[in-house]
Design goal:
The protein is mainly alpha-helical and about 90 residues long. The chain contains 4 helices and 2 strands. A two-stranded antiparallel sheet has the order 1-2.
Length: about 90
């Protein structure tokens, strides 16, 4: 796949198998959860480092994780929290 892969093409890389991580979303039926990749990215790991750790992983797999997260968050509605500031 190229960098111009559509979201639909990317999302086909995200699979689920009831015997792997209890059916959580995984990448191409491998034992690598989408949640784990997103956690590594959130921790500041660059995609290149993640790719080095998994020889089968492809750049579009990482993009697929981001597209999957965007799709999930796109359907959520979060009420703004009221923040109380204390003046001391």
């Amino acid at each position: 796949m190229t960098h111009s892969a559509s979201e639909a093409e990317l999302l086909r890389r995200i699979t689920s198998n009831s015997v792997i991580f209890g059916g959580k979303p995984i990448i191409r039926n491998h034992r690598l959860a989408v949640e784990h990749v997103l956690g590594m990215l959130a921790a500041g790991d660059p995609p290149e480092t993640i790719l080095q750790g998994y020889d089968w992983l492809e750049p579009d797999d990482i993009r697929a994780c981001l597209a999957y997260a965007r799709r999930l968050v796109g359907h959520e509605r979060v009420e703004p929290a009221l923040i109380e500031s204390s003046s001391e």
